[in-house]
Amino acid sequence: MTENPNRPREYDAVLGGQNPPPIDAAVLGGLQGVKRRLANPEVEVRVAALSDALKYGEAGLDLIIKALQDESKLVKFTSYSLLKDRTEPKVKQKLDKFLPFCEFDVIVVNKFGQEISCHHQFNQYFTEDLGNSVFMEMLLIPGGSFLMGSPETEAERQSYESPQHKVKISSFCMGKYPVTQAQWKAVAALPQVNISLNPDPSCFKGANLPVEQVLWEEAVEFCARLSQKTGYTYRLPSEAEWEYACRAGTTTPFHFGETITPELVNYKQGETSTSEAQSTFHNKTTPVGSFPPNSFGLYDMHGNVFEWCADYWHDNYEGAPSDGSVWKSNDPKKLLRGGSWAYYPRVCRSAFRFRSDARQRYPVTGFRVVCVAAWNDIVSGCV
Question: What is the mean pLDDT of residues 347-363?
Answer without folding.
Answer: 94
